[in-house]
């Protein structure tokens, strides 16, 4: 019993200091943030023409294959590829079925990486022998 009383006294003696922090420079701005629907609709209306412009750039028939691959890579790196999944899959399917060769290793490597990332079954050895002129 004596030891239990000593433990109780010890727990009562623990005093935790309270820090006196200065107020935040931001105040409660992030705690009381509200996004208005009108602003969201305005942003959505501004985005639609840009999406259509990007879609037309993807589907342009006169563009070179290297430019199309670079555009797809850029769209994916920007994180907006989910808007154009159907178009990108169609383009990569066409590229997979084509027999095209490139003079530069960069474009060939980009084609190989994009096709592999999108689930096309490509053997590295066969791809190198087929697509790269040495």
Q: What is the CATH class?
A: Mainly Alpha
The named CATH superfamily: Terpene synthase, N-terminal domain
Number of E strands: 0
Q: In DSSP terms, counting alpha (H) and pi (I) runs of 4 or more, how many helices?
A: 6
What is the percentage of strand-forming residues? under 5%
CATH architecture: Alpha/alpha barrel
Give the CA-CA distance, first to last residue: 89 Å
Could you tell me the mean pLDDT?
83
Name the helix and strand elements from N-terminus to C-terminus, one letter apiece.
HHHHHH
Helical content class: 55-70%
In CATH, the topology is named Glycosyltransferase
Would you mind describing this structure in some detail?
It is a single chain. The protein is mostly helical. The protein has one domain: Glycosyltransferase (Alpha/alpha barrel), CATH 1.50.10.130. Helix content is 62%, strand content 0%. The longest helix has 23 residues, at 37-59. The model has no long low-confidence stretch (mean pLDDT 83).
Keywords, separated by commas or semicolons:
elongated; Glycosyltransferase; mainly alpha
Give the SSE map:
Layout (H helix, E strand, L loop, with lengths): L1 H12 L23 H23 L5 H14 L6 H13 L7 H13 L6 H8 L3
GO biological process, one term: terpenoid biosynthetic process
Keywords: Cytoplasm, Lyase, Magnesium
GO cellular component, one term: cytoplasm
């Amino acid at each position: 019993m004596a030891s239990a009383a000593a433990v109780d006294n010890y727990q009562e003696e623990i005093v935790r200091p309270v820090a006196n922090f200065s107020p935040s420079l931001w105040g409660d701005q992030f705690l009381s943030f509200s996004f208005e629907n009108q602003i969201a609709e305005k942003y959505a209306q501004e985005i639609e023409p840009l999406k259509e412009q990007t879609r037309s750039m993807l589907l342009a028939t006169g563009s070179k294959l290297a430019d199309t691959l670079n555009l797809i890579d850029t769209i994916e790196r920007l994180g907006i590829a989910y808007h154009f999944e159907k178009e990108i899959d169609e383009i990569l399917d066409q590229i997979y079925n084509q027999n095209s060769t490139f003079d530069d290793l960069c474009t060939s490597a980009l084609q190989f990486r994009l096709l592999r990332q999108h689930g096309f079954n490509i053997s590295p050895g066969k791809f190198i022998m087929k697509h790269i002129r040495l």
